[in-house]
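[job 0412] stage=fold_complex status=start
inputs:
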Amino acid sequence: MEVLANLSISWLDPWLMFLTAAGTLAGIYVGAIPGLSVTMATSILISFTFKWQVNEALALIAGVFIGGVYGGARTAILLNIPGAPSAIATAFDGYPLAQRGEAGEAIGLTTVMSVFGGFVGILALALFAPVISSFAIQFNSRDYLLLGLIGILLVGSLSGESFAKGAFAGALGVLIGMVGLDPMTAEGRFTYGSITLMGGIPYIAAMIGFFGVAEALVQMHNLDLPTIKQKIDRIIPRLADVKRYFRLAMRASGIGTIIGALPGTGGDIAALLAYDDAKRMTRNPEVPFGEGAKEGLVAPEAANNAAVGGAFIPMLTLGIPGDAVTAVIIGALFIHGLKPGPMMLIETPHLFWFTVGNLLLANIFLLIFGLTGIRLFTKIIECPKAILIPLIIVLSAVGTYAIQNNPSHVYWMLGFGVFGYFLKTYGFQVGPIILGVILGPMMDSNYRRAMIGARGDVGTFLWDFVSHPISLVLSVAFLLMLLSQTPLWPPLMARLRRAGN
Amino acid sequence: MNGAAKDCGLRPGEMVFSIALIVFSVTAFWQSYAISGLRGLSEPGVFPMLASATMLLSSLVIMRDLTSKQRSSQEGQSSFLRDIVPFRLLVVVGFILVYVVAMPLIGFVFSSAAFLFASFWLLWQKGPLMSAVLTAGSLAVVYLVFRKVFQVVLPGGSLIQGII
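[job 0412] stage=fold_complex status=done
writing structure:
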């Protein structure tokens, strides 16, 4: 009964309902504009929520996340430009469908399947998070250290141009997270006697700088690209289509939830894997994949929205962000005084169930907004970048200032923005930096607790990683992931395959 | 996401950037060592040392990759100023710098108005009148949404306190 009461808070409060709706709508539109990623939308929008009540902030955040992941699909279909990385696979068949004059129907089908995938992901969150949370209580300091390392490693390796660049970005983030007074000894790290630096570098300023300003500067290169226009007709999908692709959507949602739940992997990888799976599983598609197969639209869209619910599982139960967006959200939760992790479900279960209820509500708003206003939407995405870029800068500056009314945070934001521009230009991903900033202090304190537990003896410290079952499993996973990024991996796999034959 | 990053051989300025990263990593490692030296393995400087060592190692790998890329690269047409930091970008970064410095002095409304007007005029190229109209409209929306609806405290401006 208590669960139901917490689940329905935002359903019964008109203001919370409005904020969820506003967040979803903003997420759809910002996520849809190429260059304006859902991470950028989340980091800018949530910076305005720090002085709000926790429930209000969570309502807006849930909406932005759900809307943003979906929003990328629209431009993928209409312009062949994925609005977000999670919509890359959607463009493969979505754009050919639009070229055949079926853009409206493709968007309609995408919306319904995204909502379906979203519900599957949220159901998994509601069912499995309490189980994982009770299991995670047994996790030790070294297990959290390993989880943090796995998180950074996966994001760094899966999304970048090279593993070295991902590793550099992740380590840089960890270093940024170290600035300030050490929480265990109160010793200054990189503070140089500055009182401002003793409080650490505000990570929201880093997030807005790397995702807002840097992205806006990168988009300066695309100012003169012409806009593409598409004809929109039927939007509501055919019931026969929904029925026909139900099983495929179910399967893709399962893939999406699992991938989303893994630390470091998000909607983009979930969508690509689901697309690949659909391609292999569909024997005789009506239209070949890559030429407008509806299966190629259903699978990635169901998967990337299912990954949202999945991504909340490690975030709320272990305190480990699933991807860059959840890293931003976790930062916001810390600022609101919440401590995502196994104790969250024990100490503040109402917030967990409130979040689940909120995600459900945001998903319903997604269905409403997804099937309406598409003609207006096509006008908005035609908005020139010359207008969008200055507006993003203003919002970024206001958002950074709003955190603590401190002008020095805005200077940090600009510094990170310019540095982020060069990193992006030279093929570095900035996602691992944010993960490093968030996970760095957590990994540092857990490393030192584990080392103190081993009485400073390296042998005992290392032995602990293999002598405890959970640590052993995580250590093996970490080493395999590390090995898979080295040049040794391809010949090793080839040898294993030969041995198997 | 990564609009400007294209896999087209060595990008202009990439080598200098990677050298800067190595220098930065070495400095970071030295500064990390300065925190607590090698007093013990659970000291506050250990993790920063591990992070900066990772940065140094990966920046050296990046440099090695670039060196081999440089040998095989046929690109010689691109230029740092034209492709990486074109004039328009430099001017906009200058506008942002002036904007963030001016914001605490003259307040959000005036600094944003000046920044938006200058940026729209430069980037949109529809003339001063259209830029002014767009500035007024977009600033009104931003102000109403964030100040009135979201109740965000916007910088008032120390130089114009009491005037508005």
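[job 0412] summary: Residues 1-7 of chain B have pLDDT under 50 and may be disordered.
[job 0412] exit 0
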